[in-house]
């Protein structure tokens, strides 16, 4: 069964098309990765799925029912973990979760049990009576998740749940995502961290300018770019670098520079032998090469190749 | 739906009033308002009236009953005296007024025409007027009964007892210094109106606050609709205001013993109506504000000045004509005017126009808020 199906979903803000004829099927039990750079349309899509925004066109089906018509059914089966924290600072962790779970009609002992379960899930049981104002960033994020899962939704959508937190909380969150999945939840996961997505997602869609430009398992995605090689060259300094000149070398598709570690990244046609020319050009313009490395394609390479941009630009 | 609303209402009240400061803010201030008003206008109130009674009519039933009646008036202290001492006492300000019952008073009443009674006083007409009017009302009644009894003391007594058991008690409750009590209550309610409006805006601001901390959008992703959510806010608001009204009136009537000169029921009705107006105004303010800061600014711009013009802080009579005209456009003015009219003795149905105007204010602002809320459903901040 499809937990979520999008058919030609479109959202226009005036003349601007934020989500463009998007179609997608997510099956039960998947952890589905949603990748896209800033402004790609991820949040807009999620807002439509959670009926915060009305689609300009297309259809959203949750558990095989029209989500725009049967909103109550759709909402009962959805849990949203928003990108920015949405919790009450002046309520305890326990009260926060009970409040949001209560919105789904849970009351009394049922409610209490579910809340305790959710807090345990994110490792905040011992903080149930504390106020979030005294929490660390990672603890707040975990509470943010607990608030979305206590009502046991079939589909959980997490928007960047690990942004800006310590590695320990991050591991905790990744583990709990897996546990949620094991307990039967389908999960949509958006993140800027490729490693995370590679690690936990069973299938991935890459979104750009409101469109899905690639979709599949990570192996499938990586396989699509056998024709591209990914070269990294570390230089002593980037001062004398002339990107235009490099770009004119045959076979080069995408060039990008990482300032912080003096690295030049080149995606080039695998069929064209141009490494010698590239290195010669760099040396001729007086640059000192520290290291050269050819990488096996990973999700980042896929993203870069497909969109011509770094994910975190 | 009502289950959901009740849940939201309970949570909001719980978290809002967990803070002591809020308890003071919402319910302490109206009490302070009553206190301030009673200090501003209370200094004019006279203590108990000391009334000297000279009874030269012996042990007649009617004479004794008359004296008992005067004694029963609130704020009156009776002193039995002689004609001579009465004059001295009044001259020395030991007594405020005196009632002299000459021999033959009772029998004249029994015959249906009161004679041989006089009232003496040096103080302003107000005091004597009060005693006089109460006493004359009483005498009219007893002489009427005297006529019916036609000289039969036993029959008269029977009539009188039945009568006193009935409505007489009511008359005897009235307070002497009515005007200052009215002024105190009028001003207390002026302050109360101001506090009701402020707290209404504060509570409606929760909607904005929850937009700012994004919990509002989380609520919207649950099966709860925005309408249910706003309705729950309105209900919290009304509950808080009804408690404010109750607390203020309780302190006014029971603790400070100020007589507003209006039945409590009518006062609660008018103020309850104003609670609706307050909520609708606060919702309109919130619907036009992008942030809590903006709403706060709008509140300062709207609530305090309009309260001032409408006479919530001091009587409207000291304001220039132009401002008084302007206040016709303020709901607060219509509340205060309604109370003024009721205090002047008009019946509730005779201020129907004021009630309609107040309802109209509520409806207009509710519609305005609904229209604005419908237009700015922007979920950009979420997810
Ligand atoms: N309410 C709105 N009105 C007009 N334009 C909007 C609105 N909401 C979003 N947009 C635009 O739609 C585009 C997609 O935005 P969206 O928030 O969906 O991107 P995103 O993929 O979530 O990005 P990020 O990774 O930064 O969260 C952006 O260009 C944004 O400016
Ligand atoms: Mg986003």
Task: Tell me briefly what this model is.
Chain A: InterPro entries: AAA+_ATPase (IPR003593), ABC_transporter-like_ATP-bd (IPR003439), ABC_transporter-like_CS (IPR017871), DrrA1/2-like_C (IPR025302), P-loop_NTPase (IPR027417). The complex is a heterodimer of chains A (313) and B (383). Chain A is an alpha/beta fold and 313 residues long.
Question: How is this structure best described in words?
Answer:
The complex is a heterodimer of chains A (313) and B (383). Chain A is globular. Chain A folds into 2 domains: 2-217, P-loop containing nucleotide triphosphate hydrolases (Rossmann fold), CATH 3.40.50.300; 227-296, Alpha-Beta Plaits. Chain A has 313 residues and is an alpha/beta fold. The longest helix of chain A has 16 residues, at 167-182. The mean pLDDT of chain A is 90. Chain A is built from 11 helices and 14 strands. Helix content of chain A is 33%, strand content 29%. Chain A has helices at residues 42-49, 71-76, 93-102, 108-121, 137-149, 167-182, 194-200, 218-223, 243-247, 275-284, 299-307, and strands at residues 2-13, 16-27, 31-35, 57-62, 65-66, 78-81, 155-159, 186-190, 203-208, 211-216, 228-235, 252-258, 263-269, 289-295. A 6-stranded mixed beta sheet of chain A has the order 6-7-8-3-9-10, sandwiched between helices. A 4-stranded antiparallel beta sheet of chain A has the order 2-1-4-5. Chain A has a 4-stranded antiparallel beta sheet with strand order 12-13-11-14. Chain B is mainly α. Chain B folds into 2 domains: 2-42 and 179-375, no CATH class; 49-162, abc type-2 transporter like domain (abc type-2 transporter like fold), CATH 3.40.1710. Chain B is built from 15 helices and 4 strands. Chain B has helices at residues 2-16, 20-42, 61-72, 83-91, 105-110, 125-149, 153-173, 178-212, 215-221, 226-255, 264-287, 292-309, 321-326, 331-343, 352-375; strands spanning 49-55, 76-80, 97-101, 117-121. The longest helix of chain B is centred in the middle third of the chain and has 35 residues, at 178-212. The radius of gyration of chain B is 28 Å and the shape is elongated. Residues 167-177 of chain B have low confidence and may be disordered. The interface between A and B is medium-sized, with 35 and 22 residues. Bound molecules: adenosine-5'-triphosphate (ATP) and magnesium ion. Adenosine-5'-triphosphate (ATP) binds at residues 13, 16, 18, 36, 38-44 of chain A. The site of adenosine-5'-triphosphate (ATP) has 11 residues of chain A, from strand 2 and helix 1.
């Amino acid at each position: 069964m499809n937990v979520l199906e999008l058919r030609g979903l479109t959202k226009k803000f005036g003349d601007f098309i934020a989500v463009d004829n998007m179609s997608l099927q997510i099956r039960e039990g998947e952890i589905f990765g949603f990748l896209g750079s800033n402004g790609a349309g991820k949040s807009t899509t999620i807002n439509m799925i959670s009926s915060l925004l009305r689609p300009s066109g297309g259809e959203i089906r949750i558990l095989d029912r029209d989500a725009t018509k049967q909103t109550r059914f759709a909402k009962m089966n959805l849990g949203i973990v928003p990108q920015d924290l949405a919790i009450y600072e002046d309520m305890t962790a326990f009260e926060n979760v009970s409040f949001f779970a209560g919105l789904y009609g849970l009351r009394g002992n049922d409610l209490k049990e579910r809340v305790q379960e959710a807090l345990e899930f994110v490792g905040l049981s011992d903080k149930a009576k504390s106020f979030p104002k005294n929490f660390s960033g990672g603890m707040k994020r975990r509470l943010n998740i607990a608030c979305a899962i206590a009502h046991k939704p079939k589909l959980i959508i997490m928007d960047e749940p690990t942004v800006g937190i310590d590695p320990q909380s991050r591991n905790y969150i990744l583990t709990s995502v897996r546990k949620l999945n094991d307990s039967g939840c389908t999960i949509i996961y958006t993140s800027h961290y490729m490693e995370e997505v590679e690690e936990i997602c069973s299938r991935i869609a890459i979104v750009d300018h409101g469109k899905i430009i690639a979709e599949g398992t990570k192996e499938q995605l990586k396989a699509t770019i056998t024709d591209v090689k990914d070269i990294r060259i570390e230089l002593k300094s980037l001062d004398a670098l002339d990107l235009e000149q490099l770009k004119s070398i045959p076979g080069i598709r995408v060039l990008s520079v990482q300032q912080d570690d003096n690295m030049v990244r080149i995606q080039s046609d695998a069929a064209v032998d141009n490494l010698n020319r590239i290195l010669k050009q760099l040396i001729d313009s007086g640059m000192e090469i520290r290291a050269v490395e050819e990488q096996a394609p990973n999700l980042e390479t896929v993203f870069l190749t497909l969109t011509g941009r770094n994910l975190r630009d | 739906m009502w289950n959901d609303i009740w849940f939201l209402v309970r949570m909001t009240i719980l978290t809002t009033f967990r803070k002591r400061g809020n308890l003071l803010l919402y319910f302490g201030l109206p009490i302070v308002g009553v206190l301030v008003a009673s200090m501003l206008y209370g200094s004019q109130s006279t203590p108990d009236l000391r009334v000297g009674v000279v009874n030269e009519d012996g042990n007649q039933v009617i004479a004794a009953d008359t004296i008992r009646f005067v004694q029963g008036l609130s704020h009156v202290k009776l002193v039995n005296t002689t004609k001579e001492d009465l004059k001295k006492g009044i001259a020395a300000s030991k007594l405020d007024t005196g009632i002299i019952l000459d021999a033959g008073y009772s029998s004249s009443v029994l015959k249906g025409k009161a004679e041989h009674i006089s009232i003496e006083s040096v103080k302003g007409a107000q005091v004597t007027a009060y005693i006089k009017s109460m006493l004359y009302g009483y005498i009219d009644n007893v002489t009427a009964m005297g006529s019916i009894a036609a000289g039969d003391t036993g029959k008269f007594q029977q009539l009188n007892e039945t009568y006193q058991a009935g409505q007489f008690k009511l008359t005897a409750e009235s307070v002497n210094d009515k005007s200052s009590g009215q002024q105190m209550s009028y001003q207390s309610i002026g302050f109360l109106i101001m506090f009701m409006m402020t707290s209404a805006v504060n509570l409606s601001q929760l909607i904005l606050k929850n937009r700012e901390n994004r919990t509002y959008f989380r609520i919207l992703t649950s099966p709860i609709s925005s309408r249910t959510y706003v309705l729950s806010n309105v209900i919290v608001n009304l509950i808080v205001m009804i408690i404010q009204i109750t607390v203020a009136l309780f302190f006014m009537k029971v603790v400070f013993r100020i007589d507003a000169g209006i039945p409590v029921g009518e006062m609660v009705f008018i103020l309850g109506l104003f609670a609706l107006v307050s909520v609708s105004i606060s919702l309109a303010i919130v619907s036009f504000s992008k942030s809590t800061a903006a709403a706060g600014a709008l509140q300062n711009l709207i609530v305090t000045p309009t309260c001032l013009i409408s006479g919530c802080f001091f009587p409207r009579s000291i304001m220039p004509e132009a401002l008084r005209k302007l206040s016709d456009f303020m709901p607060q003015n219509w509340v205060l005017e309604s109370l003024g009219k009721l205090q002047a003795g008009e019946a509730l149905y005779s201020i129907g126009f004021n009630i309609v105007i107040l309802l109209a204010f509520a409806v207009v602002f509710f519609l305005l808020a609904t229209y604005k809320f419908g237009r700015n459903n922007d979920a950009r901040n979420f997810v």
